[in-house]
Amino acid sequence: MQFDAADLSELIVLCRVEIERHCEHLGRLDSAIGDGDHGANMRRGLEAVYRERDAISALPLPAALERIGLVLVMSIGGAAGPLYGTLLMELGRGMSAGEDDEADFAAILARAIAAVARRGRSGPGDKTLLDVLYPVQAEVAGHAAPARIAECARAAAQATEMMLARRGRASYLGARSVGHEDPGASSCALLTMTICHYLKEHAPS
């Protein structure tokens, strides 16, 4: 589907609502293996984007994604801000190069995820939001339907529960990090699922 200003504005609203609904849950996940502020930080970031939604939605999609990324970097704080910001800014930069079909988007997403990995100095299996992003990108590259991508994101986040954290504050816990879902993976899955459900509902019949 082709995004217009109304679509982007609606998605900003929906993502804000979803993070607000799960704010306490994300905080509890982070309290188990981090400092407990991931839910509050994500809520603050999505609120900041929501406040700018009219100006953001008036931009071409690539520029809008870059702007959202910048707002998240400035407002989320902690490790999540730079990671989410890098993802969205790199997506915007890739799309601004004129690549807009499905195959090109999969490649743009792969490059954006690689930038996130470099920024966080992490990779697959490190128990981070990358453990959602990598399988989601694989589904996108395989032309999966939005419902399948959403389910993939949910399952990937849940799979981090049994991973040993190798990056960030959670890595200090060693084996004690096993048995807890990663909060960054969880918030990434929530946002991915929200976007996918919107795409499914608004796909051309």
Automatic annotation (TrEMBL):
<dbReference type="GO" id="GO:0005829">
    <property type="term" value="C:cytosol"/>
</dbReference>
<dbReference type="GO" id="GO:0019563">
    <property type="term" value="P:glycerol catabolic process"/>
</dbReference>
<dbReference type="InterPro" id="IPR004007">
    <property type="entry name" value="DhaL_dom"/>
</dbReference>
<dbReference type="InterPro" id="IPR050861">
    <property type="entry name" value="Dihydroxyacetone_Kinase"/>
</dbReference>
<dbReference type="InterPro" id="IPR012737">
    <property type="entry name" value="DhaK_L_YcgS"/>
</dbReference>
<dbReference type="Pfam" id="PF02734">
    <property type="entry name" value="Dak2"/>
</dbReference>
<dbReference type="InterPro" id="IPR036117">
    <property type="entry name" value="DhaL_dom_sf"/>
</dbReference>
<dbReference type="GO" id="GO:0004371">
    <property type="term" value="F:glycerone kinase activity"/>
</dbReference>
<keyword id="KW-0418">Kinase</keyword>
<keyword id="KW-0808">Transferase</keyword>
<feature type="domain" description="DhaL">
    <location>
        <begin position="6"/>
        <end position="197"/>
    </location>
</feature>
<protein>
    <submittedName>
        <fullName>Dihydroxyacetone kinase subunit L</fullName>
    </submittedName>
</protein>
